[in-house]
Specification:
The structure holds two protein chains of two kinds. By secondary structure, chain A is of the alpha/beta class. In chain A, 26% of the residues lie in helices and 21% in strands. Classes of the chains: A alpha/beta, B alpha+beta.
């Protein structure tokens, strides 16, 4: 960057950052008043590096000619965000980014599948085609229908049977995902690794996730990974952690830890309250850190 | 105006179409019953080394450079069908004059396809695309066009009124070559032609100009009405009505192999050739295909009964689930068995590379199980799909790419394990079936409402299913369950903190697969925390199962 030329961290007597090794064109050291010029606003500093400015020696360097000025760098557009189908979640994350990898992690019964199906339902309602690559063959068709997913628009890939080794199923999942990403045209591809043991899921090389991220980049596909623990590292643009469970029962008040050992027969599971935490977000102007929300899901029969 | 397409040396041309690599070699086609086989047709290279039609096969075998092929009626019929397709692609009014000859009426075609020479050149190019070396002639009447096509190689356009002048240089034998080389002539007809030709030869009439110049009355006195007809033909003045045929929409290609193929790789080369030929034919008729039927004639190996080889036969469960649109069949005919595969496509397509890949994947999953002697490929024609994508519609997978992707995934994980869901009208657990994922049809059916806000639905708690259900040991105290232990899954065990139920359901009691069960929703305290499960008590079998977890 051109602003680095004026770095005051360069020691006295040493060439500046873009000076060549031969020292054929040594940049003049700024005098004391000029060194104070660094305190000026950055725009003025950049202007100083434009042709015809004070340091002709710097601009005659052929390597500098190919350096793009920071002011002229193309700003990478922020990814388009789509609804996850849950208003509270959209408020927290700003939605799910297209062309990026989003991780949803949490223990069993933390609402991962609920969130995944909700996002898929929202995508199919938008008229998009979606795919679920199911490593554990755990998708419940009744839940899919109850979530409001248009079944015609959902491709379900059931990797392996549960009798197979988890490694074998993971391998199938990765190969199928590669094929689907290569095929293109899907609005959302959800990878369900939720039932895999964390030690197996962690064996997926980081390069695989990087490849997926590159494959999905510049496309309109939302790549969603549901897992117990975050495994994609920095390859994921959004990391949502789902947490504690709170059961809503009809006829009773919501209870968290104070379960009754002998409930009445009139108990009915009417929903689950889910706590979501935004662990990481690469989206602009989004909070990074533990921003938390809670939202409730209801069972299909709760009405 | 009429155009005629003529394929000289038709039996050889048919073989060349199936085996293009033979074009550079000396080839002779023989027919007859062993050991009396005789050469029927030879190509130019064979003629140069002294091989002529009529030689016995034993004689010709003395020449080591010569490649001999048996006459293939199947190839000839397929080539004839391709020739008619080619003619039909230019004019709806086509006469099937002979196996090697097709005549088409060009009236009114100039406004569509350009001038007559342009049409003739396009016809010639289209015939070449079919893998045939044909002659194309355009004249004002069908017979003149036939004679010109038989007599002149390449493209010939005879302007109206110039027929006699143009045809004059042709030898009189052209007239008697009428009828196909591919068809058997009646012996009497052949003798009559030979007698007439000998007579003309005695008169010193060698070409059509000489025949056309003979006095009509004297010719009629000597040769009768037949002689006058020949003279009219020689003058290019004969006129008749075209007898159009409706070319059947049958697109089939076949190859008979000299040696059986064992590996799938060489089979792919042959399939590629057949697919390209079929696609060219379909394209010439502005058609696509939605179904490909591949029939392989297999060598019946001693001791191997293809019926016992189940690798190509889909399981009953597959068939009942209806996930696979492909069907394999074995059946025995005589000493050879046939292996059939049907490739059904969700949409009409026309891409030979895609078809080849799909067939390869299918054959990899379902190998024939015996050496292949004959390949027969048929395409069911279908109208090309007409779909216009909207600028503001969400993207959808490209059908061709998606089909290939689905075939690859099916090859990876099994055909029955990929597709879209269809719920069945039952309360039984797992009441669903997989069906083919077809994105295009649904897109047409339900296009998204642009501009209308999507209604936000509250999230529905999802269940994650354990397939198969996990057998559990339930500890009861005073009739109440207090602890659930699942040996297979460590996470599914702990004290019951909360439960709701039971809910009893049953069904299909009138069938063998009757079911009855009680369901509970339970919360278990385990090492990770609290988790919600669905517990099922099978009332008929008597076991306890954890069916899934609420997540």
């Amino acid at each position: 960057m051109s602003s680095a030329v004026f770095s005051t961290s360069a020691p006295q007597g040493r060439p500046f950052a873009f000076d060549n090794e031969n020292g054929a064109e040594v940049c003049p050291q700024p005098s004391q008043p000029e060194r104070f010029a660094e305190a000026r606003p950055p725009q003025r500093v950049i202007d100083a590096a434009l042709p015809g400015a004070f340091f002709p020696g710097v601009m005659t360097d052929s390597r500098l000619a190919s350096v793009t000025l920071a002011s002229r760098l193309a700003v990478r557009p922020a990814p388009e965000m789509v609804s996850s189908g849950i208003a509270a979640m959209d408020e927290l994350t700003g939605g799910l980014p297209r062309g990026c990898l989003t991780e949803i992690c949490g223990p069993a019964s933390s609402g991962r599948s609920t969130l995944m199906l909700s996002a898929l339902a929202a995508a199919t309602r938008r008229g998009e085609f979606c795919a679920v690559v199911d490593a554990s063959d755990a998708l419940d068709p009744q839940s899919v229908a109850a979530a409001g997913i248009e079944l015609d628009r959902l491709l379900w890939v059931r990797c392996g049977e549960n009798s197979h080794h988890a490694e074998y199923r993971v391998e199938q999942l990765l190969r199928v995902t590669d094929l689907l990403l290569e095929s293109g045209g899907f609005g959302m591809i959800a990878l369900d690794l939720g039932d895999l043991p964390p030690q197996t899921a962690r064996r997926i090389p980081l390069t695989t996730w990087f490849r997926f991220r590159r494959a999905v980049e510049h496309t309109s596909t939302v790549l969603l990974a549901v897992e117990r623990q975050s495994i994609a590292g920095s390859c994921s643009s959004l990391l949502i952690k789902l947490g504690s469970l709170k059961i809503n029962m009809s006829g009773n008040r919501a209870c968290n830890t104070g379960f009754q050992l002998s409930p009445t027969h009139a108990q009915l599971l009417s929903g689950i309250e889910i706590t979501a935490e935004l662990v990481r977000s690469r989206m602009e102007r989004k909070p990074v850190g533990s921003a938390e929300i809670a939202f409730a899901s209801k069972t299909a029969w709760a009405g | 105006m009429f155009a005629c397409i003529f394929v000289p040396n038709f039996p050889v041309a048919a073989v060349f179409r199936a085996e293009p690599e033979l074009r550079a070699q000396a080839v002779a086609i023989f027919e007859g019953k062993p050991p009396l086989e005789k050469l029927l047709a030879v190509n130019e290279s064979a003629g140069r080394i002294g091989i002529t039609p009529g030689m016995t096969k034993a004689q010709s075998e003395l020449c080591s450079e010569l490649t001999l092929r048996p006459r293939s009626p199947l190839q000839e019929s397929v080539t004839h069908a391709a020739l008619l397709d080619c003619a039909q692609s230019f004019s709806p009014c086509v006469e099937d004059a002979a196996a090697d000859t097709a005549i088409l009426d060009l009236a009114g075609m100039e406004s569509l396809f350009g001038s007559l020479p342009e049409i003739a050149r396009n016809l010639f190019r289209r015939v070449a695309e079919l893998g045939l070396d044909g002659n194309v002639a355009v004249a004002s009447n069908p017979d003149a066009a036939i004679l010109a096509a038989r007599g002149f190689s390449g493209v010939t356009v005879i302007p109206p009124g110039k027929e006699s002048e143009t045809l004059g240089s042709l030898p009189v034998e052209v007239l008697f070559a009428n009828g196909s080389e591919g068809k058997k002539k009646e012996d009497e007809e052949q003798k009559e032609s030979a007698r007439l030709l000998a007579t003309l030869d005695r008169w010193g009439v060698r070409n059509l100009r000489a025949l056309a110049a003979l006095p009509e009355v004297a010719l009629s006195e000597r040769l009768g009405q037949e002689g006058l007809r020949w003279q009219q033909l020689a003058r290019g003045a004969a006129s008749r009505t075209l007898v159009p045929v409706e070319a059947p929409a049958i697109f089939e290609e076949a190859i008979e192999l000299e040696y059986p193929i064992v590996l799938l790789e060489p089979l792919a080369f042959l399939l590629n050739r057949l697919l390209e030929q079929i696609c060219v034919r379909l394209a010439s008729r502005a058609l696509n295909t939605q179904q490909l039927r591949l029939t392989l004639e297999l060598q019946n190996l001693a001791g191997v009964d293809p019926q016992l080889d189940t690798c190509g036969i889909p399981s009953e469960s597959d068939a009942s689930q209806g996930a696979s649109q492909k069907a394999a069949q074995y059946f025995i005919s005589g000493r050879q068995s046939k292996f059939c595969r049907t490739l059904s496509l969700p949409l009409p397509m026309l891409d030979p590379k895609l078809f080849l890949k799909l067939l390869q994947l299918d054959l990899n999953a379902h190998p024939p199980g015996a050496p292949i002697l004959k390949i027969h490929l048929a395409a069911e024609p279908a109208r090309p799909r007409s779909a216009q994508g909207g600028l503001f519609l969400p993207p959808s997978p490209e059908p061709e790419k998606l089909e290939l992707t689905l075939a690859r995934i099916a090859g990876l994980i099994g055909e029955s394990r990929v597709g879209s869901l269809e719920l069945l009208d039952t309360h039984r657990a797992e009441g669903f079936r997989m069906r083919r994922f077809v994105p295009e049809a649904t897109q047409e059916k339900r296009s998204p409402k642009i501009g209308k806000p999507l209604e936000e639905k509250s999230a529905v708690a999802a269940l994650r299913i354990f397939r198969p259900p996990l057998r559990a040991t339930v500890t009861l105290e005073n009739g109440q369950m207090v602890r659930v232990v699942c040996a297979k899954k460590k996470e599914v065990q702990g004290n019951v903190l909360w439960k709701a139920g039971p809910w009893r359901s049953s069904g299909d009691w009138w069938e063998r697969e009757a079911w009855a069960r009680d369901e509970w929703d339970i919360a278990l305290q385990n090492a990770e925390g609290i988790a919600l499960f669905r517990l099922v008590h099978d009332l008929l079998g008597g076991g306890w199962f954890v069916e899934g977890t609420y997540d």
